[in-house]
Write a structure and sequence with these properties.
Largest sheet of chain A: 4 strands, antiparallel
Number of helices of chain A: 4
Shape of chain A: elongated
Strand content of chain A: 25-35%
Shape of chain B: globular
Distance between the termini of chain A: 57 Å
Structural class of chain B: mainly alpha
Number of helices of chain B: 28
Order of helices and strands of chain A: EHHHEHEEEEEEE
Strand order of the largest sheet of chain A: 6-5-8-9
Radius of gyration of chain A: 30 Å
Number of strands of chain B: 5
Oligomer: heterodimer
Number of strands of chain A: 9
Helix content of chain A: 40-55%
Strand content of chain B: under 5%
Radius of gyration of chain B: 26 Å
Structural class of chain A: alpha+beta
Chain lengths: 259, 633
């Protein structure tokens, strides 16, 4: 063991966590969301690893023990999920935590004397740095690619209509959503059986905002037309039949829970 | 600063216990950055995409393979390099879709994941993939990560797949090491396994086979150790882990679990043929039987729907194979349904890679047959490798191509093992040939370079070519990069407008409404809109009412029969032919592929129909309320 670069006896698991962690810091807050599921994964697989790795080290070596331990850990989650599914609470945060705690206790009880001798990987500091740099670059690649994903797009305007009521009289609710990168000015015409009954001029909708207007109207074929401020042709158009034969609101039935 | 000085004072960056692996991880990072940049350039429609993209693969593959070829390198370095290669090959798909899942299969499974998170229970009906909820392994694991960490489902899915890939790469290495007894061969074979076309894209997607496949090499490894172990405690421990992994595989993916049963049965037969000479003394028939019972129990007690799901594609493949034999008319290789053909260099690389693999397979079979006659597992892998030439023939029919793509994950277990020996055998032949050339005093250059350097450089470059060929074959050219909208092209059909429409249905109409739509919008309505989408796989086909010129009795009867609430129409379908052959369902191309795009008047026919309201408009996409017809008594 050299004095200037002592091999550090960390477990593979810890080393992997550190590598990904340091890599994540390099990329910064842009990818901070990534750390949460990594922490979640560690929480989910560590109890299973503790149950399996100590007994698999002798026949399979360190790499084999961790690979088999990792596979068994995710297997214990997949199979444990089937058991949790039988509970009324099903698969929830609490039931998962209880299950993981039970696995952790099982691992500690079964292998307490052996856990301190978890297989370790001699790894030098400069290697940790290089791994971190590599992992950081990979995360940076994701960040670079993510920068150009434009959801929502530069210009997207949605118009929709629904039957409603205003007091005791029938009405329609017309909504406009502007997903452009800047505020936009529109005109909205409401027509009944082809005749204009209401106009909303200079409707300004901020970027990412929704404008909704309820308009009382008599029964008939109701149409809403959306115009851009510089354009005389309809930009968007929706319609519905209001009145005795109006659309019944579909009764979506939430699916029954349970297996 | 101290750490930096320490690094600077190092004699070499490759002196550590992991050798070249840390430095090559940085190279892998640079390669990943090139892929990320290429995808960004593609989105911005700027030049340089292809050059950056294709250079990224050999950049990491060649040095990794060179080190793996070297004798006397530490085992842990080889494992680390194999893991690096495995993780690196997840990057192309992830940088293409860095913010959400956009792959067709990924969205099928994303719906199941969302259902588990919504209801807290498994086995919720998935309108997009009816068989999916009966194999919930991946979604259960991902939902656990989401629920204990509060992470968003997409990022949790990506992290889970990354962890599984780590296990996969290590497992493949360990299996080959068990069979060959050499970490050098194991490293080479594991690297060669990574050039199977499925490994690059399909097997790294958020889909059930991605979690199931890694269990196969691990179960084979455990069975091998169980079979040759004489220690009772070891056997007991190994049996326990086998049971857990078998159970996991059975509840995770149907075809992969059936493949494992076939492999174990095949191995038991080979053991019987080899007899007492076999290195693996105890028959694995008992494990095969256990697997078969487990698979049968799950199939017939829980997932009986699987038979109905698997039969149609198998039947289609059989019909197409018969048509190929009787008519001689085959599928055009490297040509999409829209008629676009892969560039010449890509076709040349793919064909050259196939030739190279076949040549190495032939050499490898001779070498391995001489060496492993007393090793039933090695013999099994040799038999498996013969599936590669057979799978090439399958690629001549559309369904056969699908089957070949799916089976490559299994076939390559055998192929990679045999080809690894083929590569070393070819190296010996090359050294002999080079010696002759040098003796003939032809080319002083040859004498100045050690023979092995030339051979290894050629082998590593060939490996880089194999990897590029795997990407060419394993990814569709139309969706390899992001870019402007394309008609029915999965990821390339998913854009802000279609995502906004799916989100709108969920926000404004509520979940689980009965919808019909085209192939890709249907996917988004199911996965992100959480709607109950109806199409041919669920009973009644919808394509006839979409492609008809007007709304008549047939259309209204079909809407009523399906009990539809809404239709979603995307007028961009008129912009071109569907990249993946169909606009709606397979039935529309039963008598041949589309030759002209669907017309705007056909798409717009719903505007003029009575009792149908156009309630949403985003320019290209409209939603029609057809509930007055759909719920009419």
């Amino acid at each position: 063991m050299r004095r200037d670069a002592p091999p550090v006896a960390w477990s593979w698991l810890f080393a992997a966590g550190l590598i990904i962690g340091v890599g994540g810091v390099l990329v910064g807050l842009a990818l901070a969301d990534m750390l949460r599921p990594i922490a979640g994964l560690v929480l989910v697989v560590v109890p299973g690893l503790l149950v399996v790795v100590p007994v698999m080290r002798r026949p399979f070596g360190s790499a084999g023990a961790y690979a088999l331990g990792g596979a068994t850990a995710i297997g214990l989650i997949a199979l444990g999920g089937l058991a949790l599914n039988l509970l009324p609470q099903g698969l929830s945060t609490m039931t998962w935590l209880a299950y993981l705690a039970a696995l952790l206790i099982l691992g500690l009880v079964l292998h307490r004397p052996r856990i301190s001798r978890m297989p370790s990987l001699p790894i030098q500091r400069h290697e940790v740095l290089l791994f971190s740099l590599g992992a950081g670059l990979m995360l940076l690649a994701l960040a670079v690619s993510r920068q150009t994903v434009a959801y929502p797009a530069e210009s997207l305007t949605q118009l929709w209509i629904s039957a409603t009521s205003s007091g005791s009289s029938p009405a329609v609710a017309v909504s406009v959503r502007n997903d452009a990168q800047a505020a936009a000015v529109y005109r909205v015409d409401i027509l009944r059986n082809g005749v204009a009954v209401q106009t909303y001029a200079d409707v300004t909708v901020a970027a990412g905002a929704v404008w909704t207007q309820v308009t009382p109207v008599a029964s008939g074929r109701i149409e809403a037309q959306l115009f851009r401020s510089f354009d005389a042709t309809p930009y968007r158009s929706v319609n519905l039949q209001l009145g005795p034969t109006a659309s019944p609101k579909p009764s979506g039935s939430p699916k029954a829970s349970g297996s | 600063v101290t750490a930096g000085a320490e690094v600077a004072s190092k004699r070499s960056l490759v002196d550590g216990p992991l050798g070249w692996a840390p430095l090559l991880t940085v190279v892998g990072g640079v390669s990943a950055l090139m892929l990320g940049t290429a995808n960004s350039l593609a989105r911005l429609e700027l030049p340089g995409v292809e050059a950056l993209y294709w250079a990224a693969f050999p950049l990491v593959a060649i040095p990794v393979f060179v080190v793996l070829l070297l004798p006397n390198r530490p085992r842990r370095e080889r494992i680390a390099l194999v893991i690096l290669l495995g993780i690196e090959l997840l990057i192309p798909d992830r940088v293409r879709s860095p913010a959400s899942f956009t792959g067709y299969d990924e969205l099928l499974h994303f719906r199941s994941l969302e259902d588990i998170l919504r209801f807290g229970h498994l086995f919720q009906p998935n309108p997009l993939l009816t068989v999916g909820p009966f194999f919930p392994g991946l979604e259960t694991l991902t939902s656990a990560v989401v629920q204990v960490s509060g992470a968003d489902p997409y990022t949790a899915g990506v992290v889970v797949i990354g962890f599984i890939r780590l296990i996969f790469a290590t497992g493949v290495f360990l299996l080959f090491e068990e069979v060959a007894g050499s970490s050098r061969i194991a490293g080479l074979a594991a690297a060669l396994y990574a050039v199977n076309p499925s490994f690059v894209s399909f097997d790294g997607s958020f889909a059930y086979e991605s979690m199931a496949l890694p269990l196969i090499p691990l179960i084979l490894l455990l069975a091998a150790r169980w079979s040759r172990s004489v220690s009772s405690p070891t056997r007991a421990r190994v049996s326990g882990v086998i049971a857990v992994l078998l159970g996991t595989l059975i509840v995770t993916h149907h075809l992969t679990s059936y493949s494992l049963v076939a492999l174990l049965l095949g191995w038991a037969v080979v053991q019987w043929l080899v007899g007492r000479r076999d290195r693996y003394r105890s028959s694995v028939a008992m494990i095969a039987l256990l697997a078969m019972v487990g698979v049968g129990l799950w199939l017939f007690s829980i997932a009986s729907i699987t038979l109905g799901y698997l039969f149609p594609p198998l039947n289609a493949a059989l019909q197409q194979a018969i048509r190929l034999i009787t008519t001689g008319v085959s599928r055009e290789l490297f040509e999409s349904a829209t008629g676009s053909v892969a560039p010449f260099w890509q076709r040349a690389v793919a064909f050259a890679a196939t030739g190279l693999l076949l040549a190495c397979l032939a050499i490898g079979l001779v070498v391995t047959w001489r060496r492993f006659r007393d090793n039933s597992l090695a013999l099994l892998l040799m038999v498996l490798s013969l599936g590669y030439p057979a799978s090439l023939a399958l690629r001549l029919t559309p369904s056969g191509a699908e089957a070949a793509a799916r089976s490559s994950a299994i076939v390559y277990l055998g192929l990679a093992f045999v080809v690894a020996y083929g590569v070393l055998g070819a190296g010996d032949a090359f050294r002999w040939l080079l010696g002759r050339v040098q003796r003939l005093r032809v080319g002083a250059w040859a004498r100045s370079v050690p023979e092995t350097v030339i051979g290894r450089t050629i082998a590593a470059c060939a490996f880089g070519g194999l990897l590029v060929a795997a990407v060419i074959v394993g990814t569709s050219p139309d969706i390899r990069f992001p870019g402007p909208y394309l008609v029915e092209a999965d990821a390339r059909s998913i854009d802000a407008q279609s995502l906004a429409a799916a989100a709108w249905t969920r926000d404004e109409l509520g979940e689980d409404r009965r919808f019909a739509a085209d192939r890709d919008n249907r996917l988004l309505l199911g996965a992100y809109g959480m709607q109950d989408v109806l199409f041919g796989q669920r009973g009644l086909e919808t394509w006839q009412m979409f492609v008809s010129p007007s709304v008549g009795d047939f259309e209204r009867t079909r809407i009523r029969a399906l009990g539809l609430d809404y239709l979603l129409i995307d007028r961009r379908l008129a912009q071109g032919l569907p990249v993946f052959s169909i606009y709606y369902e397979e039935g529309e191309i039963a008598h041949g592929l589309h030759e002209t795009p669907i017309s705007l008047s056909v798409l717009g026919k719903w505007d003029h129909a009575t009792n149908i309201d156009r309630i949403y408009d985003s320019g290209d996409i409209q939603v029609y309320d057809v509930s007055r017809i759909g719920h009419a008594t």
